């Protein structure tokens, strides 16, 4: 049994790379349960969880809050104060995503080369200041400029955090952690409505409108959080210092045995990125996440507007966004835990898209406003089940820092295109039913089902081929070449 105590193992760990372990025992890429001390393993993983996740959850809560607070600001006179008409609001929402899409892959190339705490804290300070200055806007152009800078600085946060999380855990531990991280969206969605109601009521204080106070306060909190991030964000596992030497060596060996990653963390290069982008699994993950984000951003940014179309006032519309996000967050984490436990992704992914489609149809077609509000719950629950799942599923299917870093950045870049789409298909004149916008959400959910079915079908087929010995010829390769095969290794199993 592998333990964390050198004394009990004769001064060194058993060499897992040289142990005669049949590929059936490594089914789906996991280390055998009896190959490690479960009590010691839980202690180390718990230590990592405590040091890594709470801070990242907090930071991404602020990221999402600062991104979507414009939906709440809209209800407190922002458009009238800045002379915004027609599609101006939609343009302000959309322009954020342009630098966001373009800069995510370069950002993961940078975080791979420098200490994550430097990069993440710098990004946090940058967008915090941009949000704060947005409150001083006196024209449509000023707000537009602030939103561009928010997009520039926020671009690296989401993919960088997911890249960092995926580096610390085995393949069937990572979804639960990603879901806990992404529950930040639901926390932000819940808090955004409450803050929008509270801060907006400061309208007139010191001569500033309520929408300005939303930006001032939320941006100021983010700047303070940047200082905390500088001191507390963890590095990659190979550079960690909070683990003992024994724990660190055990962790790295465990991660390598799980997915055949190289012992040393490779640098992400432009050539490696282009090679990774030719992998259909990475493209498929991007399509799934694009399908998620069309609905997710529509719910987040336009939910207050949709609710106000029910005939409810601004305060009620803001407050009633919170319960939807709370419920969807709880269900998302529960489904992620279940998915990790049973080591399955496909059935959860396709079910989430289907539930979201049902909810969207209710919102669009049902005559009763209370029932339509219930439909928002189903639309949100379904899509937020899929959001962390499709990123984790894609990460489960590839090996190595370059592919995982490229996958998280490319998928999230694709998702932000969904944000651009959602910004364009919900003009105010389409209310209160918003047939074009909601129909677009439904169409993309069907695209997600198709992409998920392809990922599921290919993984199941390839696993059957490997179980039948159809990939055993690869074992004839020299050991150094076989080790570098990654997901093509005959012992590797896809997650389905």
Labels describing this entry:
496 residues, mainly alpha, Growth Hormone, Chain: A, 71% helix, disordered N terminus
What does this entry show, briefly?
Residues 52-466 form the Major facilitator superfamily (MFS) profile domain. It is a multi-pass membrane protein. The chain is an all-alpha fold and 496 residues long.
Q: Under CATH, the topology is which?
A: Growth Hormone, Chain: A
Question: Whole-number average pLDDT?
Answer: 84
Our Rg estimate from Cα atoms comes to 23 Å
Unreliable stretches covering 5 or more consecutive residues: 1-35
What's the end-to-end separation, in Å? 29 Å
Which class of secondary structure composition applies to the elements? mainly alpha
Domain tally:
1
| Number of helices in the DSSP assignment | 19
Question: Looking at this structure, what is the CATH superfamily?
Answer: MFS general substrate transporter like domains
Spatial shape:
globular
Largest sheet: none
What is the N-to-C succession of helices and strands?
A: HHHHHHHHHHHHHHHHHHH
Total number of strands: 0
CATH class: Mainly Alpha
Give the name of the CATH architecture: Up-down Bundle
What proportion of the residues is helical, as a percent range? over 70%
Percent of residues in beta strands: under 5%
């Amino acid at each position: 049994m592998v333990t964390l105590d050198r004394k009990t193992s004769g001064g060194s760990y058993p060499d897992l790379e040289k142990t005669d372990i049949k590929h059936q025992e490594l089914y789906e890429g996991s280390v055998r349960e009896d190959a490690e001390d479960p009590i010691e393993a839980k202690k180390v993983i718990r230590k990592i969880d405590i040091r890594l996740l709470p801070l990242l959850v907090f930071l991404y809560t602020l990221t999402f809050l600062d991104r979507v607070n414009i939906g709440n600001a809209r209800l407190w006179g922002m458009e009238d104060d800045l002379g915004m008409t027609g599609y101006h609001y939609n343009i302000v929402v959309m322009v954020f995503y342009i630098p966001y899409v373009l800069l995510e892959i370069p950002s993961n190339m940078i975080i791979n080369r420098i200490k994550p705490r430097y990069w993440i804290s710098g990004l946090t300070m940058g967008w915090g200041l941009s949000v704060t200055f947005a409150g001083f806007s006196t024209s449509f152009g000023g707000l537009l400029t602030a939103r561009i800078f928010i997009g520039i600085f926020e671009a690296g946060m989401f993919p960088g955090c997911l890249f960092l999380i995926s580096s610390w855990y085995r393949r069937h531990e990572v979804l639960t952690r990603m879901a806990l991280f992404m529950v930040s969206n639901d926390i932000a969605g819940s808090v955004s409505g409450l803050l929008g109601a509270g801060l907006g009521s400061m309208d007139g204080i010191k001569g500033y409108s309520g929408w300005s106070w939303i930006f001032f306060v939320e941006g100021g909190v983010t700047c303070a959080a940047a200082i905390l991030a500088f001191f507390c964000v963890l590095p990659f596992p190979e550079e960690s210092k909070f683990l003992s030497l024994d724990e660190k060596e055990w962790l790295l060996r465990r991660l390598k045995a799980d997915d055949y990653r190289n012992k040393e963390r490779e640098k992400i290069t432009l050539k490696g990125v282009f090679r990774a982008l030719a992998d259909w699994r990475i493209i498929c993950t991007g399509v799934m996440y694009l399908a998620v984000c069309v609905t997710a951003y529509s719910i987040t940014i336009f939910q207050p507007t949709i609710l106000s179309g029910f005939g409810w006032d601004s305060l009620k519309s803001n407050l009633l966004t919170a319960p939807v996000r709370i419920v969807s967050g709880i269900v998302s984490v529960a489904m992620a835990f279940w998915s990790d436990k049973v080591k399955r992704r496909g059935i959860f992914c396709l079910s989430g898209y289907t539930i979201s489609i049902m909810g969207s149809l209710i919102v669009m077609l049902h005559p009763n406003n209370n029932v339509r509000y219930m439909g928002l719950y189903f639309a949100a629950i379904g899509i937020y089940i899929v959001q962390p799942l499709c990123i984790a599923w894609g990460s489960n299917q590839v090996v190595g820092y370059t592919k995982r870093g490229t996958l998280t950045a490319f998928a999230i870049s694709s998702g932000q295109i969904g944000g651009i789409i959602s910004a364009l298909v919900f003009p105010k004149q389409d209310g209160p039913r918003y047939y074009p916008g909601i129909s677009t959400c439904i169409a993309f959910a069907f695209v997600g089902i198709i992409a998920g079915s392809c990922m599921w079908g290919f993984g199941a087929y390839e696993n059957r081929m490997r179980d039948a010995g159809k990939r055993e010829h690869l074992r004839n390769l020299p050991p150094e070449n076989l080790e570098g095969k990654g997901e093509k290794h005959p012992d590797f199993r896809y997650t389905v």
